[in-house]
Amino acid sequence: MFEKLKPQPEDKIIKLIGMYAADPRDKKLDLGVGVYKDANGNTPVMRAVKKAEAKLLETQDSKKYVGLLGNLDFVAAMRDLVLGDSVDPSRVTGAQEPGGTGAIRQIFELIQMASPDATVWISNPSWPNHEAILKHLGMKIGKYTYFDDATCGVDFDGMMKDLDGVAAGDVVLLHGCCHNPTGANITLDQWQTVTDLLLDKKATPMIDFAYQGFGDGLEEDAKGVRLMARQVPEMLIAASCSKNFGLYRDRVGVALAVCANADAVPLTKGAIAALNRANFSFPPDHGATVVAMIMADPELKADWMVELEEMRTSMLSLRQGLAEALRRETNSDRFDFITEHRGMFSRLGLSSEQVDKLREDYGVYMVGDSRFNVAGLPADGLDDLAKAIAAVL
Ligand code: LMR
Description:
Elements: H1 12-22, E1 29-30, H2 47-59, H3 72-83, E2 92-97, H4 99-114, E3 119-124, H5 128-136, E4 140-145, E5 147-148, E6 153-154, H6 156-163, E7 171-175, H7 188-201, E8 204-209, H8 218-221, H9 223-229, E9 235-240, E10 253-258, H10 265-279, H11 286-296, H12 298-330, H13 337-340, E11 345-347, H14 352-362, E12 364-365, E13 371-373, H15 382-392
Parallel strand pairs: 1-12, 3-4, 3-7, 7-8, 8-9
Antiparallel strand pairs: 2-10, 5-6, 9-10, 11-13
Helix pairs in contact: 2-11, 2-12, 3-11, 4-5, 4-10, 7-9, 11-12, 12-15
(2S)-2-hydroxybutanedioic acid binds at residues 13, 33-34, 127, 180.
């Protein structure tokens, strides 16, 4: 039967990981997949994670199943981290999911279960897996303009024009902060404008919140999401601990649903539990329990926040450094926008030929749309990188 399989479309981020690994050159630079790296190019296990893991190893006395919704302390901690006091917790339900991607997948399926004809609107561009999963599930996809190539900022007029096509019952997927792939983010005023539109259209927001703490800080990054959560009757959120806790391979994520009222919670909770059961039964425990332990221990939590802040500010100074180097090398302010963007990514605005040339001639790997991982920038090699970029312009 396998001969009947069709070749699958390639995911450009996954493809790039393979190409980088296969490149035999010593001098090569990986600015592809969104993984944090320190100044030595390592992706360390965070200090608080190490400590919590050591304690877990010592104290855990059973590996029996936890429950279909996973570790409920973790779910509650993530609810508070994301939503703060914006919504009465009695209106929120959720489940632990295998990573942010697992949460996205489960939320899409929940939408499909509740409203099979709903269109899910995604930004153009968006993280490529949004579209891939929606297609896989056979769901209707709408796209809204997001990025202005000329200004390298958000094309908010274009966005609102396209979102005018949203129908009642549709779902609009927004990036909570640190838009992937562009790094360009809407302002709080614009969050309000989108909230008004969703209320007017009777559409539901879905938030992909994979980078909380990587933009302007843990609280700052949640402001738009919370502003919206205060006003809309229903909301869906997929949050990830891959980046802000560095738990990538442990697959730690949460799917949260803000319901119209507490009475609506049991039905929604039951649907999410059933989806978990059908897709994988019980979510993986280790990473989520580590997060729950950190969030419950004031000392570990404080240390986690300090280390996360170090990561965030180091990415900001790399942004600054690259923009300055590019200013010198190109004798222009063309790339100054890099300092305005936030999060792990920005798009340089290069053509795919220029991106290919950077890879072939200089061993610099970035995604074909010229998205680069800010954390992968070499602090002591920014001039060389800027020279290479200037050379392919
Ligand atoms: C990325 O966009 O590079 C990350 O979210 C990792 C991934 O799974 O694609």
